Amino acid sequence: WSVPQEHGGFPSTLSSRPISDDWPGYSLDLFTYPQHYYGDLEYVLIPHGIIVDRTERLAKDITQDIGDNDIVVLCVLKGGYKFCADLVEHIKNLSRNSERFISMKVDFVRLKSYHNDKSMEDMQIMGEDDLSDLRGKNVLIVEDIIGTGRTMKALLNNIEKCEPKMIKVASLLVKRTSQPDGFRPDYYGFEIPDIFVVGYALDYNEYFRDLNHICVINDQGKAKYRV
Ligand code: HPA
Ligand code: MG
């Protein structure tokens, strides 16, 4: 797990280029998306196909790093469910087609820290009662997005209490915030500008999880689903 490279190449996140602040995204007209969100979105930041392709590469990097260790995948709900499902699927496919086989268990915690598009001070952790099962295990935490990093740091604190053997963090997205002590996950899909995004299980007040692409909402969308 701690011996990363087998035959050359760097973990793909080391050499990855961020999505820049002036990247205009893709026009919504290039793709399909649910009719009930027509008029609510600004543009597509990351199309679904690219998310899946990137996830396949992350699965490869993770598989190479894991070696012959068994892992517990800890999916952070609700936003992490799509990324986690696709990541687990890719890891399964890779391990099925190789000499090694990684035994995986999947567990879940649920966090809530956002109200509209603002991060709240108090983070709620739910479903952490059986985290004691993590003692002595190699744990891969799978998150949708790391913004300020506060949520992840709080979660890590809680999980470390269970004394796992190893903890690694995989996040589909990392936001480029002004936070100087910003948390960096071991694996991430894309570094994005400091903007609020939805889709591929990321929500705005529980809406937009049923959108395949990662998109930016417009003012109409924000107003329509504000609570
Ligand atoms: N979108 C949805 N949920 C989030 C985000 C975001 O940009 N950042 C943190 N949680
Ligand atoms: Mg959310």
Automatic annotation (TrEMBL):
Its EC number is 2.4.2.8. One of its GO terms (biological process) is purine ribonucleoside salvage. Its cofactor is Mg(2+). Pathway: Purine metabolism; IMP biosynthesis via salvage pathway; IMP from hypoxanthine: step 1/1. It holds the Pfam family Pribosyltran. It catalyses: IMP + diphosphate = hypoxanthine + 5-phospho-alpha-D-ribose 1-diphosphate. Belongs to the purine/pyrimidine phosphoribosyltransferase family. This is Hypoxanthine phosphoribosyltransferase. It comes from Alligator sinensis. The lineage of its organism: Eukaryota, Metazoa, Chordata, Craniata, Vertebrata. The gene is PRTFDC1.
